[in-house]
Amino acid sequence: MISNTAAVLRAATLCAAVSVASAASAGVDELPQDIQDKLYNPDLLDPNQPIGDSAYRDFVAKNPPPWTIGYASSYAGNTWRAAVMDRLQNEIIPKWKDLGMIDEVIITQSNLNDATQIQQIRQLVDQGVDAIVVCCSNPTALNASVEYAYNNDVAVFSGIGYLTSPYSVNSSANFVVGGRMMGEWMAEEIGGEGRVLNVEGIPGASASDSQNVGIEAAMAEYPDIEVKGPIAGMWTDQVAQAEVQRWLATNPGKLDGILIQSASELGALRALQQSGRPMVPITIGSEMGALCYWRNNPDYVSAAIHAWPPGDDFEMIWNIMMRTLQGQGPKIQSILTTPVKMTKEEMMEAIPEDCSEQSAGWYHPGIEEWAGKDFLDNFFLRPADPEAYDPASHSAAQ
């Protein structure tokens, strides 16, 4: 356990974080101005996104490496989560074991049941993990369990969406920026007028709600676009296909486009194909099947927007976690990056000609383009290459 002095220091840090969380904070002010302007501008930020000082500015893992990590996943039923597991099990775990910094990763699944995930987090703490990563979870339901972890010196990291707890470190793209990019692209694609269907992800999940905030803000600037919905695609192609088909069957009027969050765009494409309607533009993200349809029909749309490539997104929170355990000190509660826009020319180069429109795989821009080492350095008080850390040098807070 850490000493009383360290505990008092961390408690004081937390009080400071809470007092500034709703306003401009030292953590935000410590970021480069271009990052502040692009990703932390209040006009382009989910109003519930925590941006106070991190409670982990002076945190050091109480145990030396190799560490035991808990991954409390909220869902396993879509291709996005499968791609996360692929990156975690086949790349991240072997790499960090070879570096001598992790012993094992304990994985739990709660199947969108908040009570189950809360229980699983507490069990992971009681099992003695050194840190916990949660994914795409309810922004408030887990807060008491996150505090329980913090009080037991277990750091909690929320990947691909935020928790409102001051004891969590969050990371993702700025989903409001991503939603605005999607909405603005759609408006330009259909000439600023028409009728579009909005298909959100999982209602209540911060990543879904934040994207919707951006989409609605963008659409509000185009009074000649009528937005229908939202309907819930649940970030799952099969669900999105059924919901879009149902909507099309009961809404026979003209449709000019579909705003849809990954991982659902392939489902929307299939629904359109089976409906016999014109193939109107949809917002393509990173699903390979949908990108392959575009590859085979190059004039279908003008761009894709990669809002959360799963492997890159998970590796981002993992790298933030490793830096924090090493004592690098995150400045701010939420570390955000920018969605990546892909042009037709870039798509034609990146997606192979022999791709499959039935593919359940995902395209990844790559961790260095998504949130590389130099970029993450901006968010830490004592930045260093986490892969170069010497496990033998680790000493807990004294």
Structure description:
This protein is of the alpha/beta class and 398 residues long. 42% of the residues lie in helices and 16% in strands. The chain is built from 15 helices and eleven strands. The strands form three sheets. The protein has a six-stranded parallel beta sheet, with helices on both faces. A three-stranded parallel beta sheet has the order 7-6-8, with helices on both faces. Helix 8 (206-219) links the parallel strand 6 and strand 7. The termini are close together. Mean pLDDT is 92; it is low at 1-24.
How would you describe this structure in keywords?
single chain; 11 strands; 15 helices; 398 residues; 3-stranded parallel β-sheet; disordered N terminus; alpha/beta; 42% helix; 6-stranded parallel β-sheet; globular
Total strands: 11
Measure the end-to-end span: 10 Å
Mean pLDDT: 92
- List the total number of helices: 15
Radius of gyration, whole Å: 21 Å
The percent range for helix content is: 40-55%
Q: Record the strand order, biggest sheet.
A: 2-1-3-4-5-10
Q: Which structural class best describes the helix and strand composition?
A: alpha/beta
In N-to-C order, the SSE pattern is HHHEHEHEHEEHEHEHEHHEHEEHHH
- Poorly predicted regions: 1-24
**What fraction strand?**
15-25%
Gross morphology is: globular
Main sheet makeup? 6 strands, parallel
